[in-house]
Specification:
This protein has two domains: 2-128, 6-pyruvoyl tetrahydropterin synthase/QueD (Tetrahydropterin Synthase, Chain A); 133-243, Tetrahydropterin Synthase, Chain A. It is 27% helix and 32% strand. The chain has helices at 22-29, 60-74, 83-87, 92-104, 179-190, 209-221, and strands at 2-13, 36-47, 77-78, 111-118, 124-127, 132-144, 165-177, 196-197, 226-234, 240-243. Strands 1, 2, 3, 4, 5, 6, 7, 8, 9 and 10 form a ten-stranded mixed β-sheet that branches. A hairpin with a 5-residue loop joins β4 and β5 (124-127).
Length: 244
């Protein structure tokens, strides 16, 4: 079983490779090469068996006491000035790795499953001790009407089959690969749906959330250098689709 606890801190940083000249850092990191700040959110996930004596995987108060001093080291600091980040660029990935290493060395009897670090609703990374995956979020607004003429029983779809209507869709992808390539190329795919009628898109056999997500999965898998791990499509507060 997995148990997660959330932590927050505020810090500033700038992204710079000390072996590069300033101009190359500005070209590679863009605005992030300048000093700036974030409100960071950290999710610490522990995995283990439920202890029959306590009914818990881990005492969350103990976990809080273990992680809080690590978070305190980062809070209201310039990350570039910390010894660890003088050797490593304080990217979101390296922040997650830093926290993972510090938490893992204190655990006994349970396993640190992952550290997820977020700076907003769009950008996040997760490190599991071996690999780092990144998250991007996209939004598109589309209309559709179910059912299709392919389905004889129109009662299958309820209200969705009565009138044409629309949704704000939120698409989340976790992946390995270059973030900027992913952002640009996935935006092109998502824009096929944005401010469009889904039933007019011939590549979609049905305009259901399931078919939209399958379409996105197949298209994104073909982008060179991008390796999707998980995708989530939120159609409404109540209807959420995930693959695989």
């Amino acid at each position: 079983m997995k148990v997660t606890r959330k932590f927050k801190f505020s810090a500033c940083h700038y992204l710079s490779n000390p072996e590069w000249p300033d101009e190359k850092n500005r070209q590679f990191f863009g605005k992030s090469a300048r000093m700036h700040g974030h409100n960071f959110t950290i999710f610490v996930t522990i995995e283990g068996d439920v202890n029959p004596k306590t009914g818990m995987v881990i005492n969350l108060e103990n976990l809080k006491n273990m992680v809080s001093p690590i978070i305190e080291e980062l809070d209201h600091r310039c990350l570039n000035e910390l010894p660890y980040f003088k050797r490593k660029i304080p990217t979101l990935e390296n922040i997650a790795i830093f926290i993972f290493e510090r938490v893992e060395e204190q655990l006994d009897g349970v396993r640190l499953y992952s550290i997820r670090a977020e700076i907003n609703d769009e950008i996040a990374v997760e490190f599991n001790g071996r690999n780092t995956i990144k998250r991007l979020m996209f939004k598109f607004s589309s209309s559709h009407r179910l059912p299709s003429e392919k389905v004889k029983n129109h009662n299958v779809y309820g209200k969705c089959g009565e009138e044409r209507h629309g949704h704000d869709y939120y698409f989340e992808i976790w992946f390995r690969g270059d973030e900027e390539i992913a952002r640009v190329e996935i935006s092109k795919i998502v824009n096929i749906f944005d401010h469009n009628d889904l039933d007019s898109i011939s590549a979609l056999e049905y305009s259901t959330g399931e078919y939209i997500l399958q379409f996105l999965w197949q298209k994104i898998k073909k982008i060179d250098g991008i390796f999707p791990v998980k995708m989530v499509l939120k159609e409404t507060e109540n209807n959420i689709f995930e693959i695989p």
